[in-house]
Design goal:
Elements (H helix, E strand, L loop, with lengths): L1 H41 L7 H7 L5 E10 L2 H7 L5 E11 L5 E6 L3 E7 L3 E2 L11 E5 L1 H9 L2 H10 L5 E5 H6 L1 E3 L5 E3 L9 E8 L11 E4 L34 E5 L4 E13 L2 E7 L33 E2 L1 H4 L4 E3 L8 H4 L9 H4 L2 E4 L6 E14 L15 E13 L2 H46 L2
Antiparallel strand pairs: 1-2, 1-19, 2-5, 3-4, 4-10, 6-7, 8-9, 10-11, 12-13, 13-14, 14-17, 15-16, 16-18, 17-18, 18-19
Helix pairs in contact: 1-10
């Protein structure tokens, strides 16, 4: 009788273990469905969702850090045509994007429009010096006249104001503007105007009807494409603004975003998974192909606007944004990272470094939220030889001159990280814990009882 009770108990244990394991197996697709439905609900841009609260918040600080280049040998450049020797100094840090989105307007819950207001507040504690630090840098007015004006007329204007190729300016003047005598005392600066200006309006999909389109840009400034590049492909507005992406990322697929700073869409590729304050994120980086020469990447042919400067479109690493900015500015990565050797060798003192000078985004793969990013760009202008402009008579070659580079960066703070983990990650972890727990414990009970049942059965024979 005892043997029978033992065997019955083992049979019961085996069945119970199997049922628990099956329950764990059932919980996997059910749990995944619950997770998917929860995420799909919370990433939609509508009142009350986690995505909307984050999207409208300015709690996460965005900073712009500037490194300026100081010319060490201006007299040698003018007198002998020597290469400029540069020394960078920075960062000079400003808090930006502290103003909430404005004019938020929904259209049948399918799309929502908004504008971004620009502002900059100097952060002395995060800077190496004050806004009154003085730099010897390229004369922006002279470089502009060299690029845009007949050189004989430019020479008359330059001489009448006793202007030189280089000038001394404070950080504040160079960044935000100073009155330029050659331009009738108009304000001139790398980022003038900036404060109280707007970017947009942007119109993006809310994801209400299709979560795969959430945050994707439908229109910018009322248009579905830009008109700067005289090419349908290059004029396309692809992806989001980079703040978030549709959920459930596929690391095999690139992430596309549009940047009004460079007037074009661009893509990043998966580089690896890292831990950010206890949250697993996918790191996406800008590949070298994005700024490759058209000879290596034919897709970039339509961004080549001046075949002379780019040596018949064979130089890499430069983007001429004059078609959209109206000023002769060339964008590159800091220290000419990924640029052709000819560009890098035009000046001395630069040292491109992938870790310090590349662009990256850390995106949480389930929600698609960007939790940290570093958008690094260098602003350059051109000067070169001229028989008609006296101060350029000794210059031998066209020189792409780096004025400064900027790192626009943000990372979620500890409080936001804990909220994110509590509201989403911990719930997913608990559910996955139940799934694994039931499956593992049920399997263990099933096999132990089954093995013991076999052993008991053999003993009774």
């Amino acid at each position: 009788m005892t043997c029978c009770d033992q065997r019955c108990g083992l049979i019961t244990g085996t069945v119970l273990g199997a049922l628990i394991a099956v329950l764990g197996g059932i919980l996997i697709p059910v749990g995944n469905l619950v997770i998917k439905n929860t995420v799909n609900k919370e990433v939609v841009l509508e009142n009350g969702t986690l995505a909307f609260d984050t999207w409208t918040s300015v709690d996460i600080s965005v900073y712009r850090q500037f490194w300026l280049f100081d010319v060490q040998n201006p007299n040698d450049v003018l007198a002998r045509g020597a290469k400029p020797i540069l020394k960078q100094k920075g960062p000079y840090t400003y808090k930006t994007r502290f103003i909430p989105k404005k004019n938020i307007t929904f259209y049948d819950n399918q799309t929502v429009s908004f504008v971004l207001l620009a502002g900059a507040i100097f952060e002395p504690s995060m800077s190496v010096g004050s806004e009154e630090d003085v730099f010897t840098t390229l004369n922006l007015a002279v470089a502009g006249l060299y690029s845009y004006l007949d050189h004989r007329l430019a020479n008359v204007l330059i001489n009448s104001f006793s202007a030189s190729l280089f000038q001394n300016r404070t950080v504040r003047e160079l960044l935000w503007g100073y009155r330029e005598p050659m331009f009738n005392m108009s304000m001139l600066g790398v980022f003038f105007p900036y404060n109280d200006t707007t970017d947009g309006p942007y119109t993006v999909f809310t994801g209400k009807d299709d979560v795969k389109k959430v945050a994707m840009i439908d229109r910018w400034q009322g248009e579905k494409s830009v008109s700067y590049w005289n090419d349908t492909y290059c004029n396309m507005i692809n992806g989001t603004d980079g703040a978030s992406f549709p959920p459930f990322l596929d690391k095999k697929k690139p992430l596309h975003f549009f940047s009004s700073d460079i007037c074009r869409s661009i893509s990043t590729v998966y580089d690896g998974t890292i831990d950010l304050k206890g949250i697993d994120v996918y790191r996406y980086k800008l590949p070298a192909e994005a700024l490759a020469s058209p000879a290596d990447n034919p897709d970039n042919q339509c961004y080549c606007t001046d075949t002379v400067i780019t040596k018949n479109c064979t130089l890499a690493g430069l983007l001429d944004i004059s078609p959209c900015r109206g000023i002769p500015v060339y964008i590159s990565l800091p220290h000419f990272l990924y640029a052709s050797e000819d560009v890098l060798q035009g000046v001395e003192g630069l040292s491109p470094n992938f870790d310090e000078h590349s662009i990256f985004m850390d995106v949480e793969p389930i929600t698609g939220f960007t939790l940290r990013f570093a958008k690094r760009l260098q602003l350059n202008m051109l000067y070169g030889p001229s028989d008609d402009i006296l101060i350029l008579n000794k210059i031998r070659d066209n020189t792409i001159f780096p004025i400064l580079w900027v790192n626009e960066t943000a990372v979620l703070d500890d409080e936001t990280a804990e909220m994110f983990k509590k509201e989403l990650i911990s719930r997913i972890d608990i559910l996955e814990g139940f799934q694994i727990g039931f499956l593992a414990s049920g399997s263990v009970i099933f096999f132990l009882c089954l093995i013991w049942f076999i052993v008991v059965s053999r003993k009774t024979k």
